[in-house]
Amino acid sequence: MFFAPRPSSLILLFVPAVVTVGTAASGLWGCTRPSPPDRFTPRAVHHSFADSSAVVRHVALDLTVDFSAGVLHGTATHSLSPAPGARRVVLDTRDLEIEAVTLGPGGIAPAYRLGDEVALLGRPLMIELPPDADEVTVRYRTRPGAAALQFLDAAQTVGRTAPLLFTQSQPILARTWIPCQDNPSVRMTYEAIIRVPPGMLALMSASNPAGVNPDGVYTFTMEQPIPAYLFALAAGDLAFRTTGPCSGVYAEPSFVDTCAWEFADTERMIAAAEKLYGAYRWGRYDLLVLPPSFPYGGMENPRLTFASPTVVAGDRSLVALVAHELAHSWSGNLVTNATWDDFWLNEGFTLYFERRILEEVYGREFSETEAVIGRKELERELMLLGPDSPDTRLKVDTEGRDPDEGSGVIPYEKGYLFLRLIEETVGRARWDGYLRSYFDRHAFQSMTTERFLADLRAGLVRGERWIEDSLRIDAWVYGAGIPSNAPVARSRSLDEPETLAASYALGESTVRPAAVRWTTQQRVHFLRKLPPAMPAALMRRLDAEFRFSESRNADVGFEWFLHVIASRYEPAYAALESYLSRIGRRKFVKPLYEALAETPDGLVRARDLFSRARSGYHPVTAESIEASLHRAAAGR
């Protein structure tokens, strides 16, 4: 993400406006159509139409999940904190059918209207507030294909016994299933009643049941204030297994025991995180492992991380995902980026924290291996973007752009390197003391880049010129590329794969016995050190000796199929097609489609594959791939 800094010290980044609202129909639910147009047209700032006249502080949901229609319907009741003299509240919506709006327990129908449609952002819902009004209820339904919702039929699940629903609200998709103030600087508590078919289990980013309610009605509470992008819902044939006193795993019944074994170290990670940076403030930490169409590795929904099955490798080699999403309980969920321009404050901090947790639990070599692998991913992205691209800055400009398209490696790995540089410059003890204080002092608040830098300079640098000169803070945050003072991670465990890759490229080596026991990270590093395109004979030999095309490890398969495409190695294309049809994680499938689309015949193949696999992808993934293929075709 994306462009130069625009300094701001605001916590709520809204544009106030004057409004004159028309008259709505009366009756308990009588306002069935928008009021006539008026002079108020809110301008979206940082991806939200909401202004500061009335801020939502609590949401009460009452929703029914209709699997046959692929929609949710019900009500969202917003408790407001209006500014003195406030005359309106503005909510974000996108592709929602607004059926009625009422005020307070008396059910008074106010004047309201939906503004004009804006690409990516949807339509503002503007509701007139009489004096002393502090509660608004919106009755609505989602539309089929809503971007945050994926309804899977039974055949698309692991157990094939029942349909399944899950949401993905980050970054600006909560408005496609809840009318809300979809801005990360607005925090609210929530409660919910969710109605699903009997026999199903419903879960949210809130207090959760361990078993099925026979009537299919579930109640939830989230007592800590969170931004809208952390609202989450899932429902289906799901089971629970404990991994410790404060943690557990949900998944489909046939898969849940495998997942519980994979994530058995969750309690150790929680203890390590609390030792580093203070108490875990969310009660429980559970995971929900979703079907393969889930578009991300993980999503840090409070109390219930959503996870991709691609991280269940069978050898616990990809448990960094758990450490990462757990770390978000401090960096992101507790102290949240105020805008999507400040996304690195969520992800750079979380990646740094993740690797500190891994070091505590598994040792320095394990965390350094992850850091080396991550640096290679960063260098790959820098080559694609160009070292001078404004998209390689930490503080970026996302205005007019989909913030989801900018969530690449830069805010994670460049952010991590910057924080590691601070640690190595001032010493771990001093840095840890500051960082723990930072989380405590700003808990349940939103943070801009500029406020963080001011806090860093006041609380850590303290006017010491040698620290300021050593860190080159502004170059890291506002400059493109990677500054020359970036720290370097080293991992001995990657030496053998690197040496072996060099000998394979020269045609000089055979498989060593140790290679059979390599970890996921070692196999990935080996594949990355091979030439992108290789002769068919070498590809055939590698596949025969390592069986990469048969691998069920998504990380390994991704790296291998990049070579398959670059080498045009036809014998592995059937395996590539199988991979793209069973994996829905965008990090893997989107680059493979883009690699295919680099040649005319590859573009034809990519389009054909996508047409057949699309129904199994989440809308977030499908829309990204479709846009990439369209750009590739337009560039011919």
Tally of DSSP β-strands: 20
Q: For this structure, what is the CATH homologous superfamily of the largest domain?
A: tricorn interacting facor f3 domain
Question: Mind summarizing the main beta sheet?
Answer: 6 strands, mixed
Mean of pLDDT: 91
N- and C-termini, Cα separation: 26 Å
Spatial strand arrangement across the major sheet: 4-7-2-1-10-12
CATH-derived architecture of the largest domain: Sandwich
- Could you name the CATH class of the largest domain? Mainly Beta
Q: So how many helices?
A: 18
CATH topology value of the largest domain = Immunoglobulin-like
Q: Per the principal axes of the C-alpha atoms, what is the gross shape?
A: globular
Which structural class matches the secondary elements?
alpha+beta
- Structural domains: how many: 4
Which blocks of ≥5 consecutive residues have pLDDT under 50? 1-41
Strand fraction: 15-25%
Compute the CA-based radius of gyration: 25 Å
- Helical fraction equals 25-40%
Structure description:
This protein is of the alpha+beta class and 636 residues long. The chain folds into 4 domains: 18-236, Immunoglobulin-like (Sandwich), CATH 2.60.40.1730; 238-329, Zincin-like, CATH 3.30.2010.30; 335-478, Neutral Protease Domain 2 (Neutral Protease, domain 2, Orthogonal Bundle); 492-634, Peptidase M1, leukotriene A4 hydrolase/aminopeptidase C-terminal domain (Serine Threonine Protein Phosphatase 5, Tetratricopeptide repeat, Alpha Horseshoe), CATH 1.25.40.320. The protein has helices spanning 256-262, 266-277, 320-327, 344-362, 364-385, 410-426, 428-441, 449-461, 465-471, 473-478, 495-505, 520-529, 536-546, 554-567, 573-582, 586-596, 600-613, 619-634; strands at residues 54-66, 71-82, 88-93, 96-103, 112-114, 123-128, 135-142, 149-152, 164-167, 188-195, 201-204, 217-226, 233-236, 239-244, 247-251, 285-289, 298-299, 304-307, 335-337, 445-447. A 6-stranded mixed beta sheet has the order 4-7-2-1-10-12, with no helix packed on it. Strands 14-15-16-18-17 form a 5-stranded mixed beta sheet, with helices on one face. It has a 4-stranded antiparallel beta sheet with strand order 8-9-13-11, with no helix packed on it. Helix 5 (364-385) packs parallel to helix 12 (520-529). The longest helix has 22 residues, at 364-385. The radius of gyration is 25 Å and the shape is globular. It starts with 53 loop residues before the first strand and ends with a helix.
